[in-house]
Design goal:
The protein is an alpha+beta fold. Helix content is 44%, strand content 19%. The longest helix has 22 residues, at 244-265.
Length: 364
């Protein structure tokens, strides 16, 4: 099934543009992406955000009827809602990418045609599950803007993740480039964020890989997850302070992704399982159980009870699982998840979402 939603002459001339950006799974190497490391990441077809742009007389950012709720049945309803969902929906994200998109075009001499629009969004990505729901909304909105103004050919693919990240940083969201690269490129991507590349190019080196190289994978997540934004807190500061343990361990995490690229190309799935488990253990050593949270650790322990491999998809709230022993092991895992109250489903990997115009902007 073709899950691409790229620009066509038909939808632009009809006025309405709709674009998708998918959730992402960090398969190996995370969280080293924010420490000049390396990662292997793929787009998760199970969940996505979409943005819809329609020409209009005024520029309108349309609140989502669920995620930007401002009308409540009672004070109790308001309280419960804010406790579970927080204060922020997607409107601020879309406003921020509109601002940063305009600034980028202005700073780089890209002329934008006149005309206003109404921009709305929708998403089914579970909140706070470490699946990069916020950046998916921003990525989908950016894709709409690229096509409405017909500037997709003028803003390089490698630059777009930086643009998305800058819109999120504008709102105080702490994150790295990994998620945004996955959502711009789609598919399976090996990413090298070494300091040399970041200083010289302003972005990493991103190498797409064939999604068919991956074995069957599963996703486990909790209905009531912890806040993934808390997990980076002390480690980041220790790394900045020159803590030798954190610096050397984070390099080891990055090296897992570098080794993983060869392992995946060779379809050495037993070794892939070992790398996934080792990736989690290194994260656990750096962050500690208290920081990772009991619920997140329990998801990993459930997987280990059946002898499968797992690691966090992001910073917590969900894990990616590989069952090297096949369907019988998957069945045992499903039973364990049911007992523990976790949701499990087969992973659908989205192929690359880059179209011909995108590919022409890539650095040679």
């Amino acid at each position: 099934m073709n899950q691409k939603m790229n620009s066509t002459e038909e939808d632009i001339t009809s006025g309405m543009i709709e674009r998708k950006a998918y959730a992402r799974v960090g398969l190996l190497g995370n969280p080293s992406d924010v420490y000049f490391g390396k990662t292997i990441t793929f787009s998760l077809g199970n969940f996505w955000a979409s943005a819809k742009l329609e020409p209009s007389h005024h520029l309108v950012i349309k609140p989502h009827p669920v995620h930007d709720l401002v009308q409540f049945d009672s004070l109790d309803h308001l309280f419960s809602r804010l406790q579970s969902e927080g204060y922020y929906g997607g409107v601020r994200l879309i406003m921020s990418i509109c601002k940063l998109f305009y600034k980028h075009c202005k700073d780089n001499g890209i002329n934008l045609r006149p005309g206003n629009f109404t921009l709305s969004y929708d998403t089914n990505i579970p909140r706070q599950d470490g699946l990069s729901g916020s950046s998916a909304i921003v990525s989908a909105a950016l894709s709409c803007l690229l096509d409405f103004y017909n500037v997709r050919h003028l803003i390089k693919v490698e630059v777009r993740p930086n643009l998305i990240l800058s819109a999120e940083k504008e709102l105080g969201i702490v994150a790295g480039l990994q998620d945004r690269v996955a959502q711009v490129y789609g598919g399976l991507v090996y990413m090298d964020f070494s300091k040399e590349h970041m200083d010289k190019l302003g972005h990493g080196i991103y190498t797409p890989m064939d999604v068919t190289l991956l074995p069957p994978l599963h996703l486990i997540y909790a209905e009531n997850p912890s806040d993934s934004g808390k997990v980076h807190s002390t480690v980041r500061q220790r790394w900045l302070d020159g803590d030798e343990f954190i610096i050397s361990t984070m390099k080891e995490v990055a090296d897992i992704a570098a080794e993983g690229q060869s392992v995946i190309l060779q379809k050495n799935y037993q070794k892939l399982a070992e790398l996934m488990n080792h990736n989690f253990e290194l994260r656990r050593r750096m962050f500690g159980d208290e920081c990772l949270g009991d619920l997140n650790i329990e998801m990993v322990e459930v997987v280990r009870r059946v002898g499968a491999a797992s690691k966090f998809t992001g910073s917590g709230g969900a894990v990616v699982v590989f069952c090297p022993d096949g369907p019988s092991q998957v069945k045992r895992l499903e039973d364990e998840c049911r007992k523990a109250g976790f949701i499990i489903q087969p992973i659908q990997v989205v192929p690359s979402c880059l179209n011909d115009v995108d590919l022409q902007t890539l650095s040679k």
